[in-house]
Amino acid sequence: MQEENKENEEKEDFQIINNNDVQENEKEIKTTNKKSILLNFLLIFIICIGLLVYMIKVDGIDNIIKVLVKVDYRWVIAGIVCLIIHWICEGLNLHIPIKRIYKDQKFKNSFKVAIIGQLFNNITPFSTGGQPMQAYELNKKGRRVSDSLSCMAMKFAITQTALVTSTLLIVLIEFNFFKQLMQNYLWVAILGFVINIIAIILVIIAGIKKEIIIYITTPIIKLLGKIHVIKNAEETTEKLNKSIENFGKQFLIMKSEKKMVIKMFIIAVIQSFAYYSITYMIYRAFGNSGISFFQIIPTQAFLLLIMTFIPTPGSGLGAEGGFYLLFNSIFKEGTINMSILFWRIYTFYLPILFGLIFLIPVKRKED
Question: Would you kindly state where each structural domain of the chain is located, as residue ranges?
């Protein structure tokens, strides 16, 4: 009887914590995101219109129609398949760590949350909106925010390690081609890889030696509080410390569950290859040949590194410009602009549209 009462008390405590998390997240989303999201959508729309106007002016409508008629739509479909694989892998690598904590977690909910995360990553500067919205969505299903953020940090560490490792391996194999193509941009590629490696190391340190991360972040948060970038520095520090503490616990479990880590690593490698393959599918769709699949991949990886430094939603303008600079010499004359449009449809506009579908409120027994 005493055990049963204790268990009920624990459940009540969890529910109180969970309800507080929901209220905090709802307040934060309502106060910080509404206006900025609308402005970001407006900016995305302007960039899209600008791209279309530029294409019509440079290529002309007649040439655009000719290019579209000649497109091999079998490769276009193959690109869609790659995008779907990328989404499934994203959902799986979010689902696996959450399922370990919450046994009743369903994959369809994890997939929904993953797609919503991609939507908000694409419509916020530096892809900052994805994780808070994912934590909020998981919170609605009874998953504590601290647990969700820890799982996402674990996923980030494994995914980035897989991405950097696999890309570096291919760069080494195809180094002569990559060096010739990059020319003056090689230093930026090296810088991008270094930043990614530092990010991975910081996440690992947060798991092993949390005191170091707390020691580094506390004065930064205080400074941001003094210059009014952060409203409540003490509250932010407390929340961050709790998240780091919780991640430390999750990291210890991750160290003991090597099979789970290996599984997530393999899925992340497949995800990276699926995403990079989209560019190759577009390359072939427009009748190009001569450049191998493994030569396209490191170039696309480098473009992704460039995009992380661009502050606009979805790295707008920088992504298109980067694609043009890197792939203009590879694609057939007169096809590069349409290739950019197709690539952005796959990697930017479709994730936004698909994510919006998942935000439509539908009455269901279970998500």
Answer: 33-359
